[in-house]
Design brief:
mainly alpha, Serine Threonine Protein Phosphatase 5, Tetratricopeptide repeat
């Protein structure tokens, strides 16, 4: 067997293990040994085809058909004619995805699944769509499809890690053991804390009992002492009776005012109301109720209810508001979508949806032609999610929206887009115009 054929077989085995780029490099070495190797030409064409490089794929098949008369290549060329239309659908799907029109973009991507063309990029986008829709099982299926072919694929790895981090798919056995140990430690610490607390309460109770006895003895002693002075003070008491009455009325008025103030403060946070909202999982009412609450003014029980509310908004409320925003955006209710996104963002720290929320907020403000706020959120996204899912389009937006405000800044982002994403659909004539100062 010649060296070219050996390298071809090696490339196939490497690809079967999920190393598409390595397989492509080995295949090119095979072609260097024999530039007419029919199997290698077809295989390289397929690898390009999976990666979405239709022009390169067709070039390989055309060479094979022209020099070797390979009928498989001819069939590939004929079938790939329809892929130009699929590429157009894919580009439309990407734009719809960037506009947060998830169902519409998913419909476009589904039509592209009729062939294996561009399947790696396509499956990554479909996985991201299902993540946004909350269908994590389907998302995992598409992530695994990508990793089967390209186990180093950054987008798929990022999506999988994100789902693992937030517990929506199974983690490794090692991580499960770590969680079990952590839970056991929490239980042990809680148990020891409870024992310590009981000892403290007992000590506190005993201390209070002693204080009560001392206070009682002090009171009895004072009563005896005061009894001796009753007769001496009787006459003075009569003379000052009217003054005392006036002072009493004044004090009563002050006490009533203090009592009313205390009642008003108590009504500011009602445990029964907030617990009812929590029980019903009425996220809007919970959000509105605690929005202006100052935690430092709350009692211990009120603080517990407050933190329970916050935790519920973090764990479930963020996703609720985000999904509502998606529906409202689909129905062109831009203002309502923006308000729900602001609610979601407030509690989205360490939530995998925060990246999507920031981008969604930026595009929503842009739709309202509020460019200043749009740039705020595009910049926040860029600061926190470099190499994120939307980085290409965010760089594009930062370049375009800064064009007539700060041309140097616009050029900076245009240059980054061109350097890092040269093959992106966003690296277009508008970006070239910015770089050329037009």
């Amino acid at each position: 067997m010649d060296k070219s054929s050996k390298l071809y077989r090696k490339a196939v085995k490497v690809f079967e293990k999920g190393y598409i780029d390595k397989a492509l490099n080995i295949s090119k070495k095979s072609l260097q040994c024999n530039n007419k190797n029919s199997s290698t030409l077809n295989f390289i064409g397929l690898l390009y085809y999976f990666k979405g490089e239709l022009g390169n794929a067709q070039k390989m098949w055309n060479i094979n058909y022209k020099y070797n008369g390979d009928m498989v290549s001819k069939k590939y060329l004929q079938d790939s004619k329809n892929d130009k239309e699929r590429l157009s659908l894919y580009i439309k799907g990407v734009k719809l995805y960037d506009d947060i029109k998830i169902n519409d973009s998913l419909e476009m991507f589904t039509q592209c699944e009729k062939s294996d063309f561009n399947c790696i990029n396509l499956n990554n986008y479909i996985a991201s769509c299902y993540i946004k829709k909350g269908d994590y099982k389907k998302s995992e299926d598409y992530i695994n499809k990508v990793l089967t072919m390209d186990r180093y694929n950054e987008a798929a790895i990022k999506n999988k890690k994100m789902l693992q981090k937030y517990g929506v798919i199974n983690k490794s056995y090692k991580k499960e053991i770590t969680w079990i140990i952590a839970i056991m430690l929490i239980v042990i610490v809680s148990f020891l804390t409870a024992i310590g607390l009981r000892k403290y309460l007992k000590k506190f109770k005993d201390s209070n009992s002693q204080k009560i006895v001392v206070k009682k003895e002090y009171k009895e002693k004072n009563e005896d002492k005061n009894k001796d002075k009753v007769e001496k003070n009787q006459q003075n008491k009569q003379n000052k009776n009217s003054i005392g009455t006036n002072n009493k009325n004044s004090n009563d008025t002050k006490n009533n005012a203090d009592n009313q103030k205390g009642i008003a403060q108590k009504q500011a946070f009602d445990l029964n109301i907030i617990n009812a909202y929590i029980s019903e999982k009425d996220f809007y009412k919970i959000y509105n109720y605690i929005e202006n609450i100052k935690e430092e003014q709350l009692t211990i029980n009120e603080k517990l209810a407050y933190h329970k509310s916050v935790e519920l908004l973090r764990s479930e409320g963020v996703n609720f508001f985000y999904q509502k925003a998606l529906e409202e955006n689909k129905n062109n209710k831009i203002k309502e979508a923006k308000e729900d996104l602001i609610r979601a963002k407030k509690f989205s720290d360490n939530n995998y949806l925060q990246e999507h929320i920031l981008y969604f907020l930026a595009t929503t403000y842009e739709k309202e032609e509020d460019i200043q706020n749009a740039l705020v959120y595009y910049n926040e996204y860029r600061d926190n999610y470099a190499k994120g899912n939307y980085e290409e389009v965010v760089l594009y937006k930062l370049a375009i929206l800064n064009r007539f405000n700060d041309i140097n800044l616009a050029k900076k982002y245009a240059r980054e887009l061109k350097n890092y994403y040269g093959s992106s659909i966003y690296n277009n004539s508008k970006i070239n115009d910015i770089l050329n100062g037009k």
